[in-house]
Fold this protein.
Amino acid sequence: MASLLEKVQTLISANLHAMVDSALRANSLAVFDQYIREVEDNLENLEDAVATVGGEVKTLRRKKADLDQKSSALDRNIDIFLQEGKEDLALAAQSKMNSTNRLLQNYEQVLERQEAEFTSLQEVRLKLEAKLTEVKQEREELQALLDLARSKELTAKTYKSLDDLTGSGDDDIARVAEGIRARLDKASARSEMQASSLDAQMDEVLEQRALESQLAERKARLGLD
C-alpha cells in the first residue's frame, strides 16, 4: 500500500510544464502517452485498494454493531440477575461484558484507523483522476499544436521542392513545377480578390446607408416626413 501511494503521489505531483517542454522539443507526444498509461495502471490499482479498505471498513462496522448488541444484552442481563438475587450469574455476565467491551474498544480503534485510511485513499483517487483529466486535455491541445506545426513544415517543404524542381535543369519538370506554382498563386490571388470584393461590397453598403441617413435627417428638418 505504501509503495502504491508513493507512486501515486509522484504522478500527482508531475510537472506538466516540463512535460509540455519535453514533448515540444521531441516533436512527439510520447512523454504524455507514457504518463497517461502509468496513471491509468496505478489508478486501477488504487481503485482496487479503495474497494479493499472500504470492504474492511464495512466488516468492522458490522462486527462492532454485533458487539454493541451483545454488550447491551449483557448489561440488561446483569440488572435482571441482580434483581432476582442471582449474583453468581450477574458476576459471570459482568465478566463477559467487560471482555466484550474491551474487544469492542479494540474494534473501535481499528475502525477509526481504517476509516481514516479509506477517506485518504478516496481523496488521493479523486486527485489522480483530476490530474489524468488535466493531462488528457493538455495532450489534445498539444496534439493540435504539433499538427499545425507539421502542416506548416509540409507547406514549407512543398514550396522548397518546387524551387528545387524549377532549378533542376529539366524543362519538362520545370514546366510542371511552374504550373503548380501558378495554380497556387492563382488560388491565393482569387482569395485576395474575394476578400477585396467583400470589403468593397461592405464599404458600398455602409456608404449607401450613410447617404440615406443624411437624407432622412434633412427631410425631418424640412418636415417632409
In short: The chain has a mean pLDDT of 78. The first helix runs from residue 2 to 12.
